[in-house]
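Now for one record:
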Amino acid sequence: MSQTTPARVAELRAGGRGAPRYAGDARPALTWRVETAAPRWRQASAVLELRRGDVVERHEIAGGESASVAWPWAPLTAYETAHVRVAPTGVDGEPVPASDWLAVEAGPLVPADWTAAFIAAADDDSSDAAPPATVRDGATPDEVRESLRADGPARRVSRFRRDVAISRPVARALLSYTAHGVVELRIDDDVVSDDLLAPGWTAYRDRLLFSTADVTDRLGEGTHAIGAWVAPGWYGEYFGFDGDFLRTWHGPRALSVQLRIEYADGSVETLVTDGSWQATTAGPVRFASIYQGERYDARLADTGLAPAAALPHAAPAVVVEADPARLRPAALPPVRVTGTIPVAQVVRSASGEAILDFGQNLVGRLRIRIRGEEGAVVALRHAEVLEQDELGVRPLRFADAADEYVVAGVGEEEWAPRFTFHGFRYAQITGVAEGDVEVVAEVLHTDLVRTGWLSTDVPDIDRLHENVVWGTRGNVVSLPTDCPQRDERLGWTGDIQVFAPTAGYLFDTQAFLSSWMEDVAADQARIGGIGPLYSPLIDQNLFPPSPMAAWSDVTTVVPSVLHRQFADLAVLERQYPSMRAWVDVVRGECVDGLWEKGMQLADWLDPTAPPDRPFEAKTDPYLVATAYAHLSARLVSEAAALLGRDDDAAVYGDFADEVRAAFQRAYVTPAGRMMSDAQTAYAVAIVFGLLPEELVPAAGDRLASIVERGGHRIGTGFVGTPIVSDALTISGHRATAQRMLQTRELPSWLYPVSMGATTIWERWDSMLPDGSINPGEMTSFNHYALGAVADWLHRDVGGIAPLAPGYRRVLVRPRAGLVSRADARFDSVYGEIRVSWHAAESDPTEASPLEAVVVVPPNVVAVVDLPGRDPVEVGSGTHRFTR
């Protein structure tokens, strides 16, 4: 390798991108990237080194793998800091200089490392809280709402304090913490971390996450106050639908903290939560609920968590029973404020009151700066849309989604809620003069690293794509949810099952979804191997466990997607028992290869389904169920083969073949027509590989005919929408697929764009053409599932598609027609792939010649397939293709 093109290790990391500083695993996977201007660079081998103290261990890797490489040494131990570096060698035989040493740090790692008790306030009587009124018990909807908004012990926030005397210099101090509820840790009344809503929502009976923060700089010599606020969060929320609400009750709000102090003289001290802490439920936060909002009385604010102070109304904390075996270090990125958005414009309600329009439907909270009279009650209400010049709050159902601030009257005051979040574009603030309040919106979500971009010369397509991005942001708050605004916000498995490929292009979802899939597996084990409809499950389950095609198939699809997108074999290894258990359930549901029993959501929200019966789609639900039986069996067989489980690969491969043959007999005519003559039926048959190869053209022709006769409008729900464009493309009807994306008439992808949407809607017609909200009781304006078409956009328009796990081998195959220019970028685990192209004709079609620039990162090979050219294989570097 010449001196003019030096190579270097540009990145080395342990664990997932964006993951916490302290390891979430005692054996974190290693990933590195090489940067070089040398063309066609590929790795031939690498040497990994681990330094523990003065001892260095070497491990040699043969081959080119550099993503999610298994930790090859003894596992980390609690509070250990080890150092790792890597020195790759290219296939040309030239070594790349070793990387800098990477510090891999650990806090507690396993339950045995945790000695802190869980403590609660003695005056926490939330266990005696009266259940909310319910429609089932005869209450009216207004009475139910009032009950859910009522102050009471279940909605209080507990505060905790302990003083710590530091008498000598501290070399390192690590504070580890978790809670039954959501927690904010403070030292001397300053927040320890910018993490929000920790420890998030998990399958609490099986998994409770904890975080670790370095607080060395906070603990100089003297006395310090270690404090915490713990709100109910998801742990003590009321969940339900249609006015019937259940409370998940695991015990009182509780805190567990472990502070390890390593002094400069070599001594170590560990302080933990116990009965010596002080605690109270008194304080300025009078009410906190994920769904209903937060109420803060600034007149009651105190200095109870500050140094040299005392916590008013406090008493010794009580130790509560808790199972430490549930504890796991958080491995996913935390929830944070990731940006602020100013008011775009002020509009007036029908009565003349100001409504703030932020110009973007977002998820987060308002931050207000205010002057007012003592005792003034300032109300903050939120909505995603306007209807008849008022906040459109009906879609929120029983979620109040409102915050309240009582003014202290001490001059300028600033406040934002800390224990709730809302989905909104519009907000209305009452109780203060317009000139006396300044407002910004803070965007809040799990802080996933952005990895994918797409821009074109068609503004509507770009707006659609941006809507998908914002829909993703809004529905990754601790877990992948269906919607972020109403009385639901559950981890519905069907939504992320269809959306995972899109999400994983736009953001690095590896650590986030890997963590959530562990909750799915834990819930699944508790309900007999059935993939849950949503996860985490609520103890008093909202629905009886039932095998549900497309939803339960999250157990097989998402791990397979994570492996394909991030070259993560470990997720397949970890989730394999869950994958296999689900397909074993499916085998029991099938008779002679067909799944034709039980309730099925199937092609949920097909546009022809009645508003109040969204499961009544045009496509036979059992056709969908059988198609997914084949898909999951095939995915388990493929995973088994990758993991060296050859016997399982054969068993599940045979079952997949049996289902495929049964599908053809039951649902396909000899001429290639589907018994359900609907878009989704053809889409699953073609994309899932259920048809004999010779029938694919005929099936594609019929699908294209249905689409064209329907004016190129969409005719699919959750199942068909992500794959109908692929089905048309695979079967030779790309132009029809592109035409579908250009349609603005209802139902279509661009209809919401034409109506001013800035996120993806739950229904194709969540807002009707006259500007009124869909009359159905299930109408969200921030649901990402129908935005899964962006996966096709990334591959077919942007031209970036994986051919091997992690995009180590990538297909670059863009086509004009829908747009005449596109720029796509994807920051893969191996490096950034870029494709920039434009059509060489003024009126382009999919066959038009393209001029393109393709940038391939080191250790990646691209197959470039442009119209009118033979495909060519290229290595790393910048490649230009002209007419």
